[in-house]
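Reviewers asked in the last cycle whether our approach scales beyond single polypeptides. To address this, we selected a multi-component target totalling 487 residues and predicted its structure end to end. The input consisted of the following lines:
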Amino acid sequence: MSLDEILKHVEPVRAVPPMGEGARELLDEITATPRETARTRRRVPRAVAWWPRRRFTVMSAAGLAAVAVAVSWVVPGFFGPAPAAALDIRKEGGYYVVTVTDAFADAERYQAQLRGAGLDVELRVEPVSPSLVGTVFEPYDPRKNGLSAAELSRRDDLVQSIESPGRCAASRRCTIGVRVPVGYRAYKGPEHRGPARIMLGRRARPGERHIGFAPLDNPGEPLQCTRFVNRTVGEVRAMLRAHGVTVARFAVPLRGARSSVPVSWYVHGGWLTEPGKALLIADQTRTRTPDLSEPKRCPGTS
Amino acid sequence: MGRAATDRQRFEEMYTAHYDAVARYASRRTSSPDDAVDVLGETFLTAWRRLDDVPPGDEARLWLYAVARRVLANHYRGAARRELLVTKLRGEFTEAAPTWEPSEVGAVQAAFGRLSADDRELLSLTGWEGLSPGEVAQVLGCRAGTARARLHRARKRFARALAREGVDVERYGARAVAMAEGVLG
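The resulting structure, written as structure tokens, was:
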């Protein structure tokens, strides 16, 4: 037996999951980030070319998209009639508790309030899938890397997220605010300067691409509370059409994206890429990957 | 607009063609599914940003290995966790991670662990990724002759380390097959 063959036996991981919905989400997230052009890239010294110089631009898009896939839904009606303040900022113990009271306020209003409270925090608003509108996304902070949820909750120097208890499906998060430690200092590093940036999901304008995506059957999405995984492309397309949504693209696992597939194929997943346009993951066979997003709690049903 | 669509399509083709290879590369060299997803994500994110630099065909795979290698070595890599939080993918990786670890391979692991990081990298690129010395050279950015010579020395050191751990290289094959049958049966 050759040394290479012996080495094969200590291969740490022999199995990686087949390319599924998760891989598709990654693809979508990556391609939603802005690309460096050849011209700007050449000016970047080789040593730092691996890391984006304009970190923030990338972060705001990718970071938001990223967190969005982890978030399920915000109860419709959670954001009621617009109150005077865009944010609710309260001091509780050693923290400022920041929640969004008006998800549709001007960015300037959030800014003014955060500055007024003396927080080293900024808020940006980005277009997301309908069910993610109003969701708050925590700031980028590499100091959190490697910390478990329990460890993170004990740290009094980091921004913590506030999740909506009982409102999210078990496997999902839905962040409705953040807790900012009094005296909080935003992470500063070569790739991130300025204040910590919290993102808030907003409704996309027609033709505007989403930065955060949620499954089509999420409450608040076109096929809310309707099973669509493992139904045929023809069926799902008709279901979407009834809601005024067209399928703009199909992603075929291991084969890439295309503009059409046979109607007899099976849908493995999907999400809105912009208002009225959906992307479906579809293949010749049914998916055997369990849908992690189920069961979902649907308003008015049990 | 047309350019953007072409780029996206080109990237998707590369992504689907090499996803598995990069996922395996990352999984083998990281201690948790989360880290593997980080490396996977950042490698392809780099490829997306530098799409014009990605060579065509199977050479893309070697290019991606070289990027993944740098991502692993990059102390910023933890930041990717915040940049690309693909929850579902993390779940899929966690599920796919093997739960059994045959104790019989402990000695081989120990021997492998004694080697320098450089030797481990060379040996794993051939043993796990199945690369030829010429391909290893491309990933490492050195000449084929250099890679071949370094690989030869690494193999010798590995053989010595195995002997020190009491692994009988001649008989290892039969034991490994029996072990595999036991697991499969």
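Chain B touches chain A through 70 residues (CB under 8 Å). We regard this as preliminary and will revisit it once experimental data from Aim 1 are available.
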